[in-house]
Amino acid sequence: MSDFSTEFRMPKGCPNCGSHMMKVSQAKSPDDQVFCTSCNTEVCSWEEAERILDETPRSEAEQLIEDVMNNKKPPEEDY
């Protein structure tokens, strides 16, 4: 049986084990549940996770880690 989930990194860790790596179904519907990849604790809904990803202030280092783990390209800067 195939696993149809996507892993991503959250700025806030799991309340149970502290891991920042989470998984959600590939559909990413607002009511899909987000689970910790380490201990499989249900953390929040995908809708809440998106809000946390958008609103949580992060240091530059933390943002770079998340961008790499979530396969995001950093914003281009004009030189």
Your description of this structure?
The protein has 79 residues and is of the alpha+beta class. The chain contains 2 helices and 4 strands, in the order E-E-E-E-H-H. It has helices at 46-55, 60-69, and strands at 5-9, 21-25, 33-36, 42-45. Strand 2 (21-25) and strand 3 form a beta hairpin. It has one domain (5-69). The chain is 25% helix and 23% strand. The termini are far apart.
Q: Which percent range fits the helix content?
A: 25-40%
Order of strands across the main sheet: 1-2-3-4
Q: Classify the secondary structure makeup into a structural class.
A: alpha+beta
Query: How would you sum up the global shape?
Result: globular
Straight-line N-to-C gap: 49 Å
Main pleated sheet:
4 strands, antiparallel
Question: Any descriptors?
Answer:
single chain; about 80 residues; about 25% strand
Note the topology:
Blueprint: E1 5-9, E2 21-25, E3 33-36, E4 42-45, H1 46-55, H2 60-69
Antiparallel strand pairs: 1-2, 2-3, 3-4
A few lines on this structure:
The protein is α+β, with helices and mostly antiparallel strands. A hairpin with a 7-residue loop joins strand 2 and strand 3 (33-36).
